[in-house]
Design brief:
This protein is of the alpha+beta class. It folds into three domains: about 90 residues, Pseudouridine synthase, CATH 3.30.2350; about 120 residues, Pseudouridine synthase; about 55 residues, Archaeosine Trna-guanine Transglycosylase, Chain: A, domain 4. The chain is built from seven helices and 17 strands. Helix 1 runs parallel beside helix 6. It is globular, with a radius of gyration of 22 Å. The relative contact order is 0.17.
């Protein structure tokens, strides 16, 4: 059987990953639908989780690291009184404890403990590597090792619904924040233990859930309109840095930037990162302002 020809296609797709799928399985399904030569995701979502998974196709993969490092937002439900091996509903129950009546004030006070810059110990069921081996592989063998705490930033953590044995919260946080660890620590602060029973990612800055598309919708579009219809779901490459200052260059400056050389651009910002354009609309990539005021290309795109 002849392998389907892959095509060069560039853009960012905001996938609504379904529960039960690994991020890589979702990526491969989309890559096949688009017949794309190259594609990558921007940080894994657990199979238990649903929601926003930005997928980078073609030249957009050069910018995927920006989204990997971006702030994320989640809506999660935690089941009080039950702790599990994985910190979520997929793990085995370790212990159950009674849940006493919790006032809104006590819950809010506990949530405040985990707001701001905090230390987290990565869970054993995670992709963090120790001596070159992912922790989850050790955990599956029943091996637990000491893990160094990591500093993360919780920018917002608020309660949106409270039941006797269940809390639903919204979270905005820095990269590397483990929601499962946050919920387990919250459960201990409340004196009853807890695990994540539902998790949905609602934003990966600068993207939110408004432009997400499901696998089912993609399949339907592919059947009805083919590749041209699918391509309408793709966001442009510069959407990943839409809130950055823009610099437009022409002539020799554009040529030298494409050769990897820094150039002087009148009226450019004096510091920080910028998005680069040739003329008004041709996106070249991203650059950084040097100490001497020149603009240095850092990651260029285009064929």
């Amino acid at each position: 059987m002849t392998e389907r020809v892959r095509r060069p296609v560039d853009g960012v797709l905001l996938l609504d990953k379904p529960v039960g799928w690994t991020s890589n399985a979702a990526l491969q399904a989309v890559k096949r639908l688009y017949q794309a030569k190259k594609a990558g995701h921007t940080g894994s979502l657990d199979p238990l989780a649903s929601g926003l998974l930005p997928l980078c196709l073609g030249e957009a993969t050069k910018l995927s690291g920006l989204l990997l490092n971006a702030d994320k937002s989640y809506r999660f439900t935690c089941r009080l009184g039950v702790t599990t091996t994985t910190g979520d509903a997929e793990g085995e129950v370790i212990a159950t404890r009674p849940v006493e009546a919790l006032s809104r004030e006590r819950v809010d006070a506990a949530l405040r403990q985990f707001t701001g810059v905090i230390q987290q110990i990565p869970p054993m069921y995670s992709a963090v590597k120790q001596n070159g081996q992912p922790l989850y592989k050790l955990a599956r063998k029943g091996i637990e090792v000491a893990r160094a705490p990591r500093e993360v930033t919780v920018r917002e953590l608020r309660l949106v619904r409270q039941e006797t044995e269940e809390l639903e919260c919204e979270l905005r946080c820095s990269k590397g924040t483990y929601v499962r660890t946050l919920v387990a620590d919250l459960g201990e602060a409340l004196g009853c233990g807890a695990h994540v029973s539902a998790l949905r990612r609602t934003a990966v800055e600068p993207y939110d859930a408004a432009r997400m598309v499901t696998l089912e919708a993609l399949r339907e579009r592919a059947e009805q309109e083919g590749l041209a219809g699918l391509d309408q779901w793709l966001l442009p490459l510069d959407s990943a840095v839409a809130d950055w200052p823009a610099i437009s260059v022409a002539g020799d400056s554009a040529f030298y930037l494409r050769q990897g050389q820094a150039v002087l651009v009148p009226r450019a910002p004096t510091r920080g990162w910028v998005r680069l354009y040739q003329g008004e609309h041709r996106f070249l990539g991203i650059g950084e302002i040097l100490d001497d005021g020149r603009v240095a290309p850092r990651r260029l795109v285009g064929r």
